[in-house]
Amino acid sequence: MSETPILAGHAAWAALAVPPPGFAFAREEGRLDPAEFTAVVRASGLGRPVDDAARMAAMLAGSSLVVTARDAAGRLAGVARSFTDFAYGCYLSDLCVDPAFQGRGLGRGLIAETKRIIGPGCMLLLLSAPDPMTWYPKLGMERVANGFIIRRDG
Question: How many other CB atoms sit within 10 Å of the CB of residue 64?
Fold first, then answer.
């Protein structure tokens, strides 16, 4: 089986920033309800401190870019939460889709919408949890090996 080629360039990613039928993407930084955010993170299984409401609210409040996917009834289906200067770099910290909505292209769409918003001069960096490590290359994302970390205490 051959590996998916890397999808290079802003225009290629921006062209994918189209929500699947029945869904809409929106920027919701400063507006997304922390409880709603926490519910989607919890449902997705993303390892975040979902039992610490104050910490989840602070995480959301400190984000410079929050892109959401909602269904036609307004239910939150997925979230891409990032830190960016909108000029040079963007760290996509959380990408989560409620399992009830997975398999429809929302994850890829949220990544593409994030890239569309940050623009062509801004790179997007995502650090993956272990399980989806094989999923991102299938989207055409480039794997990187360089990096260093100082881990959080809790």
Answer: 15
Q: DSSP assignment, residue 139?
A: H
Structure tokens belonging to residue 61: 């409040």
Place of tokens 């990032």: 82
pTM above 0.90, yes or no: yes
* One-letter amino acid of 145: A
Hey, what domains does the chain have and what are their CATH numbers?
Answer: 10-139 (3.40.630.30)
pLDDT tens digits in sequence order for the chain, 154 residues long? 457 899 999 999 999 999 999 999 999 999 999 999 999 999 999 999 999 999 999 999 999 999 999 999 999 999 999 999 999 999 999 999 999 999 999 999 999 999 999 999 999 999 887 777 888 888 889 988 887 777 888 8
| b/e burial code for range 97-124 (CB count within 10 A of at least 16 → b) | bbeebeebbbbbbbbbbbbbbbeeebeb
- Ranges assigned E (strand) in the chain: 23-27, 65-71, 76-84, 89-97, 123-126
